[in-house]
Amino acid sequence: MQLFQGLRAQVESYLDPAQIEQIAKAYELARDAHSGQSRSSGEPYITHPVAVAGIMASMRLDAQSIMAALMHDVIEDCGVSKESLVEQFGQQVADLVEGVSKLTQIKFGSKAEAQAENFRKMMMAMTKDIRVILIKLADRLHNMQTLGALTPQKRRRIAQETLEIYAPIANRLGMYAIRQELEELGFAALYPYRYKVLRQAVKKARGNRKEIISGISQSIERKLADAGINAKVLGREKTLFSIYEKMRTRVHSFAEVMDIYGFRIVTDNEDSCYRILGQIHNLYKPVPGRFKDYVAIPKTNGYQSLHSTLKGPHGLHIEVQIRTELMDQMAQNGVAAHWLYKSGSQPHPAESRAREWLRSVMEFQQRAGDSMEFVENIKIDLFPDEVYVFTPNGNIMELPVGATPVDFAYAIHTDVGNACVAAKVDRQLTPLSTTLRNGQTVEIITAPGARPNPTWLSFVATGKARANIRHFLKNQRREESIAMGKRLLDNALSEKNVEQFSEADREKVAHDTRHKNFDDLLADIGIGQIPAIAIAHRLDPERHVIRKQEQEEHPLTIRGTEGMLVNYARCCCPIPGDPIVGVLMAGRGIMVHMHSCPNTAEFTNQPDRIVPLQWEKDVKGEFIAELEVDVVNRRGVLALLTATIADEEANIVNLEIDPRDGSYNTIVFMVQVRGRLHLANIIRRVKAMKETNRIIRHHRVMADKQNP
């Protein structure tokens, strides 16, 4: 019980005795359930839920949240039933515990799918009760604080997941204090060497900075005191992760980032915020275009503050944030401030905005085809740098940077987005792909019977727009796509049709191309995702779509490519006799590679793009092969070499000479050959030359991906 005493001291400051007794009962259940279990560090497992509950208590969350935090792993790891939790602690606590549990009993095809499904279930639980994500964030924070006992590989995986998902969620909910700690811990675990180097550089640079920060703080304080304004001035330290991100994304040097000084000015009311802004702009000159008013127009997560960048003494840049005490607390705690400062009749801005976002999450869930797509849409929505635009009626709409009129249309209503045909920006007709800027007025023009265009997916910036477009295309056009796919496949099969193949054959092809069923495969053919000719080849490898007479006049080079554009890969230069494989390239037909070509490895996870091929028996034509020859650096050797190749009736298309040292040169020849036998004769003749040290068939392993 000694472990519980610290938590008891925390909750005694704001909860009543009856609630504390319930928390003690939850502790005892968790302690008994985790008895005998230990963490990777060797500590008893119960230390983890107690620490998570302590983080929740530091945010002054209610008794139900503290109890759920203590028991958040008992369903998953200890076999305690939800029914018993309902009986002892009530329905809400049991629902919270279930919402945080990972549901590991579900089986998935891959680890990525499992993680996506767990995340989806967590987000769905969060939409029912937002406290689920607060417990999950506290759970993740303590796990990050105790990463040291894990293997480096596991540390990196958890750190990456934290930076990609959990820190952005904390930011989306306005919980900056937790977000910053998650980012710092994630950065240290994912890039330990970079973190160490940056920490040392910052420590070294802070000597001079203290004097400059102190001088600027005193100047601001004197100015505000002279104006009779009550405020606190705080020098704001940048976190290592924020310094690293600015260096990485904005390509700034360390010196450039450290030349910017941050200050936070906290006052007692909103009116004083604007008065302080005026005094600061009198003291130092503002940088044009670098002022943001998040008080009048709060961020999507409820954050409020005035931001301004100024030219300080000696030309230094100063970033100033001006806010009230309440805004400052909300900035640190975000949606958790709902429990910290219950204001009765007035809704908490961070919570109301979080509720709006959660409603959009529910819509993603309804529209998404699977968990992976759901996570993709959520990720898009978790990184919003806002742009503010106006409706024709003067209402403000918040959209992420990079948003287009299509995103604006879907933000108004799904039906408006689906029926959108054109847009006016500041009364001028503009393309739907136009990127919107702050302050513009956007008007959407709709038409009855209009449909979303698949090309919109290439430029929309919001998860809501992407989810709705995909949902419409998948569901509204599915029957049309299947019918179109069947027609295209029947045409590709020529003398046969789809019905002539057994159900087992069709399902096998669907399975081989990683589709759930044959209808899904037909739908992908119908919308142009997969060429019909490739599936026709899989269903009927022996088909011939060119008449015999045409074959005699123009013999087919490769069997299985009938009716398709064929190109030979320049990386491996396949020639008749080589084992080959085809890769379907968008707009370029089939690219023929040698079976062993390293450049085909990236397509192993896309079996629908791989086409098995073989050479026809009587191949006619000239094919390019590359030979790499090391020869003695002697006068006349190049002429001798080219003459030898010419004697074998091969034409040299190109050659490159790479001087190795004084005694040898490496020459790469591109020669036209009729097949492997012809090439073998050339190699044998060149190898017999006394000037030849080595000859091999050359492969361009690192070929340009656009021209493999």
Mean pLDDT metric: 78
Gross geometry: globular
Cross-sheet strand order for the largest sheet: 1-2-5-4-3
Q: Determine the fraction of residues in helical runs and give it as a percent range.
A: 40-55%
Determine the structural class based on helices, strands and strand pairing: alpha+beta
What is the strand content? 15-25%
- Poorly predicted regions are 102-110, 338-346, 544-557, 702-708
Radius of gyration: 33 Å
Number of domains: 5
Question: Could you walk me through the main structural features you see in this protein, from its secondary elements to its overall organization?
Answer:
The structure is a single chain. With 708 residues, the chain is of the alpha+beta class. The protein has 5 domains: 2-190, Hypothetical protein af1432, CATH 1.10.3210.10; 202-340, Beta Polymerase, domain 2 (2-Layer Sandwich); 352-475, Roll (Ubiquitin-like (UB roll)); 544-615, no CATH class; 623-697, 2-Layer Sandwich (Alpha-Beta Plaits), CATH 3.30.70.260. The protein is 49% helix and 17% strand. The strands form 6 sheets. Strands 1-2-5-4-3 form a 5-stranded mixed sheet. It has a 4-stranded mixed sheet with strand order 12-14-13-15, with helices on one face. The chain has a 4-stranded antiparallel sheet with strand order 18-19-17-20, covered by helices on one side. A hairpin with a 4-residue loop joins strand 18 (651-659) and strand 19. Helix 7 packs across helix 9 (131-145).
